[in-house]
Amino acid sequence: MNLFKKAMSRESTAGIIFTLPFTVGFLLFMIVPMGISLYYSFCKYDILSPPVFTGLENFRTMFADETFYKSIKVTFFFAFVSVPLRLIFALLVAMLLLKTTKMTGFYRAAYYLPSIIGGSVAVAILWKRMFATDGVINKLLQAVGIDCKFSWLGDTKTAIWVLIILAVWQFGSSMLIFLSSLKQIPMSLYEAANVDGANGISKFFKITLPLLTPTIFFNLVMQMINGFLAFTQSYIITQGKPMNSTLFYTVYMYQQSFEFYNTGYGAALAWVMLAIIGLITLLLFATKKFWVYEGGL
Amino acid sequence: MKKKLAVILAASTMAASLAACGGSGSSGGTEAAGTAGNKETTAQTGGGAPAQEAGGEGLLTVAWWGNQTRNERTQAALDKYSELNPGVSFDGQFSEWSDYWNKLATAAAGHSLPDVLQMDYAYLDQYVTNNLLVDLTPYIEDGTLNVDDCSQDIIGSGSVGGKVYSIPIGINAPAMVYNKTITAQAGVEIKDNMTLDEFVEVSKKIYQETGCKTNMAYGVSQEILQAMIRGYDGHVLFDNGKLGVDSAEEFIPFFKVYEEGVKEGWYIEPGVFAELTPGSIEQDPLVYGSSPETMSWVAFCWSNQFAAFNNAAPEGMELDLTTWPSKDPKLSNFLKPAQLFSVSVDSKDPVTGARLIDYWTNSLDCNQILLAERGVPISSKVAEELAPSLSESDQKVISFINEVVTPNSSQINPPYPNGSSEVSDLINKLEEKVCYGELTAEEAAEQLFTEGNKIMAEKAK
Question: Residue A22 domain-assigned?
Fold first, then answer.
């Protein structure tokens, strides 16, 4: 009893109990499934029958699989185009919202809204309707005199851009992060620049941008990872069509796992994705010393 | 003292959060059960009323795929059963075709399949080989499940290796539903058992006369190719470990329809389909769309979907149905035991499951609610008694099956072996490439032959 009392009053006990809901969930719903998925990636597994260990077979199939390369190409294109665009957009809007007026609060909320709802299925369906042949976009173009009956989602060249625009539109969370770090840049620097006679453009490139690089870096890494993991847009709006031109890696993984029941292969694809994301993140970190300003102010 | 307080606080917060988890878990139960299946739902009710389970009664999960009409009617039929048999209640779960199979496979892996589930011919073999379905033969022998009024052929089609694993709810046939208003306007007559060449001729004529285009199940056309291949001396497309054709030649006429159609303008532009959900009746170009260039005069489907098409059709559009075109319609046509129902091995109460299937098969009450939405009832007695209460379009379907298809059809292909879903995807991908002008019909046929054979061989290993 005394021992129990002693154990209960130890500092770490409270900590353990407080973190338990998280740790249990993390172990049960992250670590265990990850372990199982790692095992499946070395198996021939179709969900219905028990897995059969096949060693590296899945990975060998993958390197001969044309669709695998295609989906990597699509995903890279999507991530490398949509993420920088989104960041540029976020930064621009953040700079505009820096000035405090009566409406600033409203605008901030309004621009943040797409990040909350933009990833949802409802918005994906809305997007699909908007870009339909008889959708709002074409109707608007017709209203200004351009007779457009173009099928945005049906063309192999434009379909991916519909998804990219949707992704760029969800710039809100990056915007908020930019906004808060813009506010931390000391006014004294700008005042000094004013005294030296610097104009707006050189102030932006000489003061604002360098001091923002740590934030840009953070946003870039986070958004890049998100970009590679994008699923809903492609799954709901295009299903990878037309001609696999919007087949995101994650959608291909889903198809293999749950449509063709090559679940072992799907698991292998997932682990390759993890390796790719890890590698890209490492590369980004390696470039950090060349362009990210980490000195004090 | 402070530390103790912290510990107690921590413990109580945790308890509260756990309780909250439990609470949200059961309120979200119906959703969760969609993927997790019956075990959770029975566990939930089991906690509250353990006595129910002991009596062999309680809550059964029933799962099916389908459209809005079917969901409403099936739920009503289940409610009626509960009314007739107090103590039995059902949790009906429905989804669209493709989601349905994902859910079912996941549930199978977790040993939490619904008690009674709708099975398809395409998946039957796979589920039986993996021991996921209950052998219903003993229930038929002891009279729980009465199939005296049903033809042995039909019962046989739900069997694997001489054991009955599923009972079809209705009989269907491949059907080509067409817009009679348009065909009349174009001045063409659609006769039963057309050949593919005649079909193409008609399509061209309709396009010239009315501007209305054609759709041959773009994106979901594997069944059509299968039926066409049957026209070649009864070849079976999805054979064990290979594609059951002599050469790639047999695929060419199929791909030619898409190649020539898009080139000459009478087939709907492939881009149009990017905006639709393939396989959805409500969004089929036959009934959906506002201008002739995005609409089709024809839809390839199953005879039981005729009612749903009629529901989805705009006012003033008259629909009719006929057979799918083929080189040799007699060989291609077949009767399909549609919408099989099975009891899963995960069911705690297979007897009630078997009783439910019996009710479905033999009860006039039940069928008066279902109204042949899944196809013509397999019990000849029920089919006969039901006829007067059916709508005109449903009666049309029955006479189509009895008078057009039955006398002019051949035995259905055996249940599809493993690999068919991947080859089906390949067929549709190639079809897409043909429509976008990236492959000729001949190239697509060649690719289907080599790659399809490779997939089938791989999966048979």
Answer: no
In this complex, which of B18, B109, B438 lies closest to A47 when CB atoms are compared?
Answer: B109
For chain A, percent of residues with pLDDT exceeding 70: 99
* Number of folded domains that form chain A: 1
ipTM over 0.90: no
User: Residue A102: which CATH number?
Assistant: 1.10.3720.10
**Look-up: residue for tokens 């024809």?**
B298
The answer to whether residue A26 is domain-embedded is no
- Residue B68: the pLDDT is 80
Q: Cβ of B313: how many Cβ atoms within 10 Å?
A: 19
Give the structural domain span for A115: 39-291
In the predicted model, is pLDDT for residue A56 greater than 50?
yes
The predicted pLDDT at position B3 comes to: 54
Q: Read off the pLDDT band of B96 (50, 70, 90).
A: confident
Mean pLDDT over each residue of chain B, to the nearest integer? 83
Residues of A in contact with B275 (CB under 8 A): 128, 132-133, 151, 153-154
Between residues B34 and A191, the one the model is more confident about:
A191
Question: What are the residue boundaries of the structural domains of chain B, listed by start?
Answer: 55-170+337-397, 174-333+418-460
The pLDDT assigned to B5 comes to 52
Strand order of the β-sheet with B167-172 is B89-95, B59-65, B116-119, B336-343, B167-172, B376-377
Contacts of B425 in chain A (CB under 8 A): 255, 259-260
Q: Which two tokens stand for residue A199?
A: 């104009």
- Note whether residue A268 is domain-resident: yes
On the question of pLDDT at B62 being above 90, the answer is: yes
Secondary structure string (H, E, C) spanning B108-161: HHCCCCCCEEEECHHHHHHHHHCCCECCCHHHHHCCCCCCCCECHHHHHHCEEC
**What pLDDT does residue A38 have?**
95
Q: Check whether B448 has a pLDDT greater than 90.
A: yes
Q: Which helix (H) or strand (E) holds A13?
A: helix A11-26
A8 lies in a domain? no
- Residue pairs spanning A and B at CB distance below 8 A: 92
Does domain B174-333+418-460 fall into CATH 3.40.190.10? yes
Nearest to B408 by CA among B334, B460, B301, B304: B334
Contact residues on chain A for B13, CB-CB shorter than 8 A? 18
Say if residue A97's pLDDT is above 50: yes
Looking at residue A106, what is its pLDDT?
Answer: 87
Which of A20, A134, A255 is opposite residue B290, by nearest beta carbon? A134
Residue pair A280/A194 in contact (Cβ under 8 Å)? The answer is: no
Is A159 within 8 Å of B105 when comparing Cβ atoms? Answer: no
What is d(CA B265, CA B272) in angstroms, rounded to the nearest whole number?
13
Q: Give the CATH architecture of domain B55-170+337-397.
A: 3-Layer(aba) Sandwich (3.40)
Q: B276: distance to nearest CA of chain A, Å?
A: 9
pLDDT of res. B37: 37
